Amino acid sequence: MPEEETSVRQLDGFDLKMIDILMQDGRIPVTELAARVGLSKTPCQVRLKRLMDEGFILGFRAVVNPAKLGMDHIAFAEVKLSDTREHALDEFNRAVRRIREVEECHMIASSFDYLLKVRTTDIKKYRAVLGEKISSLPHVASTSTFVAMEAVKEGAI
C-alpha cells in the first residue's frame, strides 16, 4: 500500500476537521480551533503537533494579494527536456526550485515534460525570466508559453 494511502487512514474525523479549518484560517487560536472541532485545548494542541510532526501540515504562511504587489502577470510554460533519465530530471528539479518566479512546477505525462506556473510583474519581465532562467535550466530542449488572462480560482484544494 502506498505511503499516502496509509497516512490518510491514520487520520480520524477530528484530525480531518482540524486540517480543513486550518486550511481556511491558519491563524485561528488553538482554543477556538479546539472548540470548533469539539475537543479541549490540550488534546487539540497534541493533535496539531502530531499533524505537523508527521508532515500532514507543512507550515503556515500569509496569503498575499499578487495584484497589490504588482505581481499579477501569470504565464504557464510547457517545458520539454532533451534528456528524461532520472539524473537529468533530478538536475532540472533542483535548478527550477531556485527560480523565485516559478510558483509551481509539475511533471506532466504528455507531449512535454513539465508545466511551470510563472508569476511576474508583466510580459517583459516574463520574457526575461523565460530567456535567462527557464531556458537555461539543465536539459531544456524547448518551451511554449500560455499567458493567463484572468485567474478564476487559485490556491485552493
Beta percentage is 15-25%
Low-confidence stretches: none
How many strands?
4
Helix content: 40-55%
Main sheet strand line-up: 2-3-1-4
Give the rounded overall mean pLDDT: 93
How many helical elements?
6
The quaternary organization reads as single chain
Which overall shape is indicated by the principal axes computed on the Cα atoms? elongated
Distance between the termini: 24 Å
Describe what this molecule looks like in 3D.
- This protein has 157 residues and is α+β, with helices and mostly antiparallel strands.
- The chain has 6 helices and 4 strands; from the N terminus they run ααααβαββαβ.
- Strands 2-3-1-4 form a 4-stranded antiparallel β-sheet.
- β2 and β3 form a beta hairpin.
- The radius of gyration is 20 Å and the shape is elongated.
- The chain starts with a helix and ends in a 10-residue tail after the last strand.
- The model has no long low-confidence stretch (mean pLDDT 93).
Q: Which key phrases capture this entry?
A:
157 residues, four-stranded antiparallel sheet, elongated
Q: How are the elements arranged and paired?
A:
Layout: H1 3-9, H2 13-24, H3 30-37, H4 41-53, E1 73-81, H5 86-96, E2 102-107, E3 114-120, H6 123-134, E4 140-147
Antiparallel strand pairs: 1-3, 1-4, 2-3
Short description:
Helix content is 40%, strand content 19%. The protein contains 6 helices and 4 strands, in the order ααααβαββαβ. The mean pLDDT is 93.
